[in-house]
Amino acid sequence: VQLVESGGGLVQPGGSLRLSCAASGFTFSWYYMRWYRQPPGKERELVAYIPSDGGMSTYADSVKGRFTISRDNAKNTVFLQMNSLKPEDTAVYYCNTGAAPRYWGQGTQVTVSS
């Protein structure tokens, strides 16, 4: 299993970013995908979940209405569209797969600051 996150960066409050996670080493379309984040000095937390078929997704209360998870099974990629970003969204963001729940990539840093 390999998961490579990208798309992070520095953005002002109210701005947007789109994260991508390229997956390989397993049959991507068979498994759910999740995005997690780890704020500075805090534990990793679940942000969003999408089932294998791209059906009904779920979100942490803190990001509902602002973040959207999606996937492209043809490209083995999962996305996280983040709008109306807040300073408290600052974290390292990771994707995760049901194919290997204990595997973590390197993550991508998102910093929301003016």
Question: What is the topological layout?
Answer:
Layout: E1 2-6, E2 9-11, E3 17-24, E4 33-38, E5 45-50, E6 58-59, E7 67-72, E8 77-82, E9 91-97, E10 108-112
How would you sum up this structure in a few lines?
With 114 residues, the protein is mainly beta.
Structural class: mainly beta
- Poorly predicted spans: none
User: What is the arithmetic mean of pLDDT?
Assistant: 96
Rg over C-alpha atoms, rounded to the nearest angstrom: 13 Å
Instruction: Write down how many β-strands occur, each being a DSSP E stretch of 2 or more residues.
Output: 10
- Largest sheet, order of strands side by side? 2-10-9-4-5-6
What would you say this structure looks like, in words?
The chain starts with a strand and ends with a strand. The protein is mainly beta and 114 residues long. The mean pLDDT is 96. β4 and β5 form a beta hairpin. The strands form 2 sheets. A 6-stranded mixed β-sheet has the order 2-10-9-4-5-6, with no helix packed on it. Strands 1-3-8-7 form a 4-stranded antiparallel β-sheet, with no helix packed on it. It has strands spanning 2-6, 9-11, 17-24, 33-38, 45-50, 58-59, 67-72, 77-82, 91-97, 108-112. The protein contains no helices and 10 strands.
